[in-house]
Design goal:
seven-stranded mixed beta sheet; alpha+beta; 3 helices; 124 residues
């Protein structure tokens, strides 16, 4: 029995957390495409390269995900923060086929994170 897009995406999130690119790419079809504004990567090697770049940009990030499924398609809006960087405008699209990811688009702006200064309580 083939996995649903929701099941694949849940598993994908767990695998991303490991940082193991081989484990992550096992959720993609052999002919998968990984599309960014700058280029199109193909196959497992392309997925490794694309995901590797994302993980390198945002190591050990705190992710906030807003998924919206429509059949075999997922629109994912996301934000991520690390001590040094943040993304506030992440948008991915996933296309699922036969229990795997067959296409993914990724777009985000990586910005330096401005440290939040703790507020000092004011006294009267």
């Amino acid at each position: 029995m083939s996995r649903t897009p929701q099941e694949v995406f849940a598993d994908h999130g767990k695998r991303l957390g490991t940082g193991d690119l081989g484990l992550i790419t096992a959720n993609y079809t052999e002919d998968a495409v990984f599309v960014t504004p700058g280029r199109t990567l193909t196959g497992h090697q392309g997925v490794r390269e694309g995901i590797g770049r994302l993980l390198a940009d945002l190591p050990d990030a705190d992710w906030q995900l807003t998924p919206r499924f429509a059949g075999d398609v997922l629109l994912l809006q996301w934000t991520a923060t690390t001590p040094a960087h943040e993304v506030t405008d992440g948008v991915d699209t996933f296309v699922f086929r036969d229990g795997l990811i067959s296409a993914q688009t990724v777009r985000y702006t990586l910005s330096p994170r401005t440290p939040r200064t703790p507020r000092t309580p004011r006294t009267a």
